[in-house]
Amino acid sequence: MHDVAAAAGVSRGTVSRVINGGYVSGAARAAIEAAIAEVGYVPNTAARNLVMQRSQAVAFLVLEPPSLILEDPNIGAIMLGANAVLSSADYQLVNLVVDSARDTERITKYLSGGFVDGAVIVSARANDPITRVVTDLALPATFVGHPADLKQGIPFIGIDNVGSARAITERLAATGRKRIGMIAAAVDRDSGADRLTGFRQALGRRFKPNLVAHVPFYDYASGMEGMRQLLQREPRLDGVFAASDAVAAGALQVLRELGRSVPGDVGVVGFDDSPWAQRTDPALSTVHQPAKEIGAQAADLVLRQLGGKTPEPGGILLPTPIVWRASA
Amino acid sequence: MHDVAAAAGVSRGTVSRVINGGYVSGAARAAIEAAIAEVGYVPNTAARNLVMQRSQAVAFLVLEPPSLILEDPNIGAIMLGANAVLSSADYQLVNLVVDSARDTERITKYLSGGFVDGAVIVSARANDPITRVVTDLALPATFVGHPADLKQGIPFIGIDNVGSARAITERLAATGRKRIGMIAAAVDRDSGADRLTGFRQALGRRFKPNLVAHVPFYDYASGMEGMRQLLQREPRLDGVFAASDAVAAGALQVLRELGRSVPGDVGVVGFDDSPWAQRTDPALSTVHQPAKEIGAQAADLVLRQLGGKTPEPGGILLPTPIVWRASA
């Protein structure tokens, strides 16, 4: 800026006024614009924003193993929904990858260090260090999902996992299935635990604990593992509720390998209505998650907080219609 | 910092020395640390880094439609490879989503505004505005792939797409196939154009232009579309080179729908060796791309430039072995 002022023969204050949109005479403006072009000056937006106490950036974090994020198209759809809303408000979404303890530690510093004005946080579990930093700093944030230890007053957005799981299990049972199992993934997340609760509620007294296979993640490999376990425990199994579409895709692969027909021998239902659901053979009957809308509303809640509004207490739950295709 | 100094009864300079690791007496340090805890002071890392003229952050950008990024596990693997290298050097990878013209415009400002020290850029085409900003600013960057207009001296990293495509086509032809077609995706990218060139070279005088179906993207839907086109033009087709594994997965789906056996009636080969390759039925014969390694080396080249080293002229090409499975 010093060089621009010298080249234009004006004070640095006048240069600053041109850059920041204040009043200067037409002649001074023309001289300064020519000088800017001459010296190749680029305003440092980071510096300017810092003076304004803002970065115009919002972090997007998914607290799941990255291998899982990469194969879960829903998470991508949530991110695109959030990006669209932030972009139209001229905010930059910065997606931060959490792949190690070192990443977590560095990111907590990044979040508290003035690089972002807010955050959208997906899939937090209780006791996550990133959740703790965000709540301790009172960084404007929205959670997608609802970790058990989320402080009152911090907004969250999600779906009714209990009700949705109950509804699709009831629908599966209504096709005449007698021995229905569940591949229950990620029960350390609120979503995973709630889907298992909904499954239990739907079966009521017909629920058998040994027909629940617990697997760690919402992914294809977990689906294969869970399906093998269920068939070992109950070879006459005729129905399966898989906790996500990726899990269901893994289950279908095992059923195919073992020569079981779907839906003839075994009816299979998933959860998410992600692109997986239309690519399996047969296509999956599943619960539709409005992933883009979840992301859009999460971003909107961050922007409202940045605009000085206090979020309403409690969370927002979006509707989840059942999509019935060919797998059950 | 003013509040901390007042609470501790010392000067702001002394507080600054404690925070920045300079020498102070043990008693002053204890008083200041107690005052920091009391007033809840958090150092603004963004401000401190700005004084040092650095952000300790590197942008990661993929210049492809986001829907495609979400279903291409290779891009995720490149990002994780880059993140691991940046993380161990205490740099924050910030992944920026490009989903609209507005995103592009805002991101060019972000890149030039001091928020990042460098960038890894994947899948740039010629004339991309983001490429132009990066090269105009001389921002330390590495390109994954090689856009036709990349300035001399800017490092890039990739694979020998021509040689790899030639090798897998030759291998497919060696299984006795007589009428081999190609589903050629994204020929507006260097990778897409080069894979088509390799296919042509392998077939030599047996190459028939009407057995190339051009499709826009490296994705499943493009694979379905391309396969339908090829079979319409040549119903007796007995071999297909699909430009990526996702494209091959779409092609397999169409062949299955039409009752053609693979590899019995038609041999199919892909490109990438992504998780898709092991989930198709039958599993794909394909070209292995060392995606994590590509990301790691791209990040390393950015860090070298940040360390003041001039990158070697030209690019780095990594080896791509053929992985032969069951689809051909």
Automatic annotation (TrEMBL), chains A, B:
Descriptive protein name: LacI family transcriptional regulator
A Pfam family: LacI
Lineage, broadest ranks: Bacteria, Bacillati, Actinomycetota, Actinomycetes, Micromonosporales
CDD domains in alphabetical order: HTH_LacI, PBP1_LacI_sugar_binding-like
Residue stretches making up the HTH lacI-type domain: 1-52
UniProt keyword annotations, A-Z: DNA-binding, Transcription, Transcription regulation
SUPFAM superfamilies registered for this protein in UniProt: lambda repressor-like DNA-binding domains, Periplasmic binding protein-like I
